[in-house]
Structure formats: structure tokens, C-alpha cells
Request: fold
Amino acid sequence: MTDTPQVLLAHHLKALKLPSFLRDYDKLARQCAAEAVDHAGYLLRLAELELIERERRMVERRIREARFPAVKSLDSFDFLALPSLNKALVLELARSEYVLRRENVIAVGNSGTGKTHVVLGLGLAACQKGLSVAFTTAAALVHELTEARDEKRLLRLQRQLAAIRLLVIDELGYVPFSQTGAELLFEVFSQRYERGSTIVTSNLPFDEWTHVFGSERLTGALLDRLTHHVHIVEMNGESYRLKQSKRRQRADRAAAPPEGPPAD
Reply:
């Protein structure tokens, strides 16, 4: 019978979905007793632990739902490797206020300069701020839209995409689209115009986007919407991956044993 209150309390806390209360209430009670903390202070500490744990789980859920190919933060980005990058702008964007203002970001530059890493960091920061995020490549999104159209579920997918606070579209420009694919992607941008924020990365300057969409009219209309409220992150420079490869090759040559004298 002495365990009945604890059993009932555990049952109620599970029903109320308060796992931190259940895990910590006894240990925290002893700690507060030792520190002469009153019952209100005890409940405050317990509630704070629950809120911290709940926020942690919500961030983890948002990160899973974003479908990032990798979880990367801006803390691990080597800004010194790309001196031309406006670091102050990137760190300002990491505050995610542009998402609240429904503004867009375009990261443009040659391949290998870290565009994907930067936008992954911005996406992670938005998740941590409590915002819904989705990550995809341009080619994968066009494929998904085309498949949804063929299966008569395009309207539902479009609504889902329009409801996301931050949509990250990577690698625009690597693969040209069919007319249908270009029109479907344009519709996504059009539906999100001034309703949600979109991040795009591209290895092409704007005047070459026509090669991707196959139509000057469509490209012009898309850029008009995308760049109306936009932050441009220019990331031109030597490929970071190429630079790392050269560094490894130099290190390997330095570590290699010297060649012996030629055989007689």
C-alpha cells in the first residue's frame, strides 16, 4: 500500500505526458529539501526541466521532418576558407528573422564553395527557432511534383509545400528541367510568394537560369517573385573540396618515404 501514491503519480504523469516530471521529481525533491527550497521553487524547477526537455524533443522532431541530408551548423563552417563570403550577413540570417518577414535567400557561386553547408546551417537555425523547415534538391522536388501530378495528388503536395515556413531548394542549375517540370517548380515559387521563405542555392548566375527553365518568360516571372524580398549570399571562390584534396595530396607526398638510389 505504501507504493500506491507513487504508482498513481507515475500513471498520471504518463497520462499528462510529463516524462521529465516522472523522471526527476523524486531526485529534485531531495535536492530542494537539502537546499531548503520551498514547494513553489520546487515546482518551478520541475516545470523548467519539463519545458527544456519538451523544446529539445520538438527541435529534434523538426530536424527529422526537415529531411536534411546531414545536420550541419554554421559553427563548423570554415569562413576563413572563403574570404569573399559576407560572414556578417550569414550570421544575421542565422537569427531567422527573415523567415518571420517571409523573405528569401539565394546562395549563388561556383561548385564546392560550401553553399549547401551554409544553407543547412540556416535551416538548422530555423528549426531551433521553432520554425518548420523542409530541405530538398531542385531535381528531387521537380520529380516529386511530377509524380504527384501523375498520381492525382498534386494539390495536396502543393498545399503542404506552401504551409512550410522555410523551404530550402538546393542545387538549382545542375539539371535542366522539362517544360512541365519548370512550370511545376514555378508554381511552388509562385504559391510561396510573400507567404513563406525560400532558400535557393545555384551554381549559375541569374542570367543563365533560362538554360534551366527553358523559357525567358518563365525565368523572368520566377526571378521577379524570388528576388522581390531577397538576401543574396555570394559564394564564389576556389572549391573547398578541391582545396582539401590538394592539401591531402601534399600531406601524403610529405609523409611518403624518400625514394632509394636507382638499382644498378
Observations:
- The longest strand covers residues 166-172.
- The CA atoms of residues 126 and 140 lie 22 Å apart.
